[in-house]
Design goal:
- This protein folds into two domains: about 90 residues, DnaJ domain (Helix Hairpins); about 90 residues, Monooxygenase.
- The chain has seven helices and no strands.
- It is mostly helical.
- The longest helix is centred in the last third of the chain and has 29 residues.
């Protein structure tokens, strides 16, 4: 969506927060997606380092400190753009949150409370992993816990690869399969957190 600078009338580049011609900050545009805010194409398979570099570059130009003595509208716009940039970095750099965001963009809430995990294979996998974790914690076996972590990390990588394939073209034409892969990744992500806490607890015991 093209737009013109509110100060000089020049056509705005992408991302549109600052005018490339006169440097003026533009009114915040809440209709922009997180990808639009950072000026990147909407896709799942993005480069996290490129995303971080882009956000940091934009944050330097939009930081509220630069507009401390500006008129109220510019100060407000700076704060709104900066807040949205922070949200974009937090969501888009995370494979789980990025997939969830893209699916929600097409009306699919795969992680909502109303969604029930009906995949018997996933339910069985969850039960087996949790029982193994409980057994290893009871046995105070840090070596086996590290082995379990590596196994779960490998499974999480496979889930991300599956999402990358399913979300290669947008909107996703297999939303049910993508939702299932997303729920699997969510479980594995939570399990890795539980392993971290278990290892820390045993090391400090």
């Amino acid at each position: 969506m093209s737009a013109q600078c509110v100060q000089c009338g020049a056509e705005l580049d992408v991302p549109p927060a600052l005018c490339a011609s006169c440097g003026a900050i533009q009114p915040f545009r809440p209709e922009l997606s997180l990808f639009g805010v950072v000026g990147m194409a909407e896709c799942y398979d993005l480069n996290p380092q490129l995303l971080r570099d882009q956000v940091l570059k934009l944050q330097k130009g939009l930081h509220p400190d630069r507009f401390a003595n500006a008129e109220p509208a510019s100060r407000r716009a700076s704060l709104e753009w900066s807040t949205r940039l922070n949200e974009a970095l937090a969501v888009l750099r995370d494979p789980l949150r990025r997939a969830d965001y893209l699916l929600k963009r097409q009306g699919v809430d795969a992680l909502g409370e109303q969604v029930k995990v009906a995949d018997p294979e996933l339910l069985m996998t969850q039960m087996i992993y949790r029982e193994r974790l409980e057994d290893l914690v009871r046995a105070h076996d840090l070596t086996a816990l590290d082995t379990l972590r590596q196994e779960v990390e490998a499974a999480a990588t496979k889930a991300v690869d599956k999402l990358r394939m399913l979300l290669e073209s947008l909107p996703c034409n297999q939303p049910d399969a993508a939702g299932s892969a997303l729920r699997e990744l969510q479980f594995l992500d939570k399990l890795l957190g539980e392993i971290d806490r278990s290892e820390e607890s045993l090391q400090n015991a």
